[in-house]
Design a protein that fits this description.
heterodimer; A: 308 residues; alpha+beta; Alpha-Beta Plaits; 2 domains; 4-stranded antiparallel sheet; 10 helices; B: 266 residues; alpha/beta; Rossmann fold; 6-stranded mixed sheet; 8 helices; 10 strands
């Protein structure tokens, strides 16, 4: 038998052995899965809420859009030229040129002074461009740098930018991100502890079997393998349960949020985890399960004689 | 008919091609962490195919000798060589493979009571990643040798103590070891069963397996008339090894060098 085939056989035996043991203790396995599921559902749900908040308030990148007003009499060709040079710079997602005529038209539509404005002999509005920084360059420093770039052109009259709002927005996002990381870290540690403790108890329950296995030539890797699979199964099962909890909660909230949005004339709908989110959740759960089992087996298998 | 297949060993690795001793102890001492000195400078050799009794009172050092052979312990001093391999130089990662090459029978059987006999006997092969068909064939052959064929699905709890010990022997020989060691294998058996179990060991020795048995039963040892190494307080006080016996063993038993080699990595 080839070494690879033998290796595969041992893995399959460990995998099915681990599944069989979980199936033989359905209630205990289910309780552990629920604990892990709830622990994973909280950060997953929070991440989803943050994503939905972003969507609900529009792309937060637009909040740092700024407008560059040109001096009266600047030819539109020069404005186009400056816009083109700006687009070539890194950190800019888009630049929209609005001519003075377009600006006046928009003002007529928006202000309701349509007819009154036709009485004007000259268009008092200048050409302007709206600059949207790319998401990676939406921080106060980067936006300030862009502002200085456009201000340096002699044709530019004023660059309209509310940096305080940008700073507040970024501070808010930073707080949210930190909260998310804290919650993820704490609950991730919780999952590690739950799985580690479950594996520890299983090692204690199976101590005679482990001892005999080692006596007849089972390596530490052989003994450890089924426990690692058990950890992975706990993590995977817990993450799938977490996915169900989050999807259920989102479905429950979606209708109420939709109605609230409709009252403000919007059509906002909650977005769920999606296949990518579920994949990340499952991978995270499996990795945490594997790590928890690895730490636990590393600590406890060493204490069982024979040690090697 | 005794199944030679179970004894066509390909197990214990050896470093040199010309080896005359299966086991060699050179001035071996063993002191446990609690300070107890189990062995105090023991020297002896066991040739391939020998049947040897280690005897002595409780605490004489018999179990320590067996533990050192099976690498369950390392010597505090001296050199233990098994099939030409200095066990002190075997790295930790290689110990399981080394252990798989030795059949060990324990006084308390060390059976998994929640598993059927089949699983107990199959364990060394499962650990080694043997294909299931091969496992099945060899488990049946091993159980046949110890007279338990047909009891595969029974629980060890349904067996008598003697039968449990025979399951332990079947598990010990299933990997076709060239070396079989047993620590008080008849300690819990009545005299009749003890003789029966010893005959099983003797049959393995007759097909070339080196058998070392720790026992404190002088009648049993006398009955089988094999080489006897007597220990007392960690020292050898007598060894019945004789030149004529050595000559006989050399003529009839296969040498380690004559048996197929095995890679420690298997």
């Amino acid at each position: 038998m080839s070494g690879l085939g033998s290796y595969g056989t041992r893995h399959l035996q460990a995998l099915f052995g681990a599944l069989g043991r979980l199936a033989r203790t359905p209630l205990a396995s289910l309780l552990t899965l629920i604990v892990i599921g709830v622990a994973l559902a909280l950060p997953a749900g929070l991440a989803l809420v943050v994503d939905n908040l972003r969507a609900a308030t529009g792309d937060l990148g637009t909040a740092v859009d700024f407008t560059v007003h040109f001096k009266a009499g600047t030819p539109i060709e020069r404005v186009q030229q400056i816009a083109a040079s700006g687009r070539a710079r890194p950190g800019i997602a888009s630049i929209t040129v609005t001519t003075a005529a377009q600006a006046l038209e928009e003002f007529k539509q928006a202000s309701g002074f349509g007819d009154a404005l036709t009485a004007l002999e000259d268009n008092p509005l200048p050409h302007h461009i709206v600059v949207r920084p790319s998401p990676s360059a939406s921080g106060p420093t980067e936006v300030e740098s862009l502002r200085r770039y456009f201000s340096a052109f002699p044709e530019v009259d004023i660059v309209q930018l509310d940096l305080d709002w940008v700073r507040r927005l970024h501070s808010l996002l930073d707080v949210l991100r930190r909260i998310l990381w804290v919650v993820m870290s704490v609950l991730g540690l919780g999952v590690l502890a739950v799985i580690g403790n479950t594996i520890r108890l299983e090692i204690l329950n199976r101590r005679p079997e482990i001892e005999v296995t080692k006596l007849v030539g089972g390596s530490n890797a052989f003994v450890r393998r089924p426990f690692l699979y058990t950890g992975i199964f706990y993590g995977l099962g817990g993450s799938l349960l977490a996915g169900l909890i989050v999807v259920g909660a989102m479905a429950y909230l979606d209708q109420a949020v939709g109605e609230l949005s409709a009252q403000y004339g919007g059509h906002f709908r909650m977005s769920g985890l999606g296949p990518r989110g579920l994949g990340i959740l499952a991978a995270t759960g499996a990795a945490l399960g594997w790590m928890g089992a690895l730490i636990s087996t590393g600590r406890h298998l060493r204490r069982i004689e024979p040690r090697a | 008919m005794f199944d030679r297949d179970l004894c066509e060993s390909k197990t214990i690795p050896h470093a040199h091609s010309r080896i005359t001793a299966m086991i060699s102890f050179e001035n071996v001492a063993k002191r446990y962490p609690n300070g107890r000195e189990a062995l105090a400078g023991v020297t002896f050799q066991i040739e391939p195919g020998e049947f040897v009794f280690l005897t002595g009172r409780s605490g004489a050092g018999k179990s320590s000798v067996l533990k050192l052979i099976a690498l369950l312990e390392r010597p505090s001093r001296g050199t233990v060589t098994v099939a030409g391999q200095n066990t002190g130089k075997i790295k930790a990662g290689r110990i399981p493979a080394f252990r798989r090459a030795i059949g060990v029978v324990f006084q308390d059987h060390k059976l998994l009571l929640d598993r059927p006999i089949y699983d107990n006997v199959a364990l060394p092969l499962v650990v080694a990643g043997t294909p299931l068909k091969e496992v099945d064939r060899r488990v049946r052959a091993a159980l046949d040798q110890v007279g338990l064929l047909g009891r595969e699905r029974s629980s060890p709890l349904e067996l008598s103590v003697g039968e449990q010990q025979r399951v332990g022997i079947a598990r010990a020989v299933i990997s076709k070891p060239r070396l079989l060691i047993a620590d008080e294998p008849t300690g819990n058996l009545d005299p009749g069963l003890a003789v029966e179990v010893m005959r099983v060991f003797k049959r393995f020795q007759e097909v070339g397996v080196t058998v070392i048995i720790a026992s404190h039963d002088p009648h049993l040892v006398e009955q089988f008339g094999q080489r006897e190494i007597v220990l007392d307080a960690g020292r050898i006080v007598s060894d019945s090894y004789r030149e004529s016996h050595a000559a006989r063993m050399t003529a009839t038993a296969p040498r380690v060098a004559d048996l197929p080699n095995i890679d420690l990595r298997t």
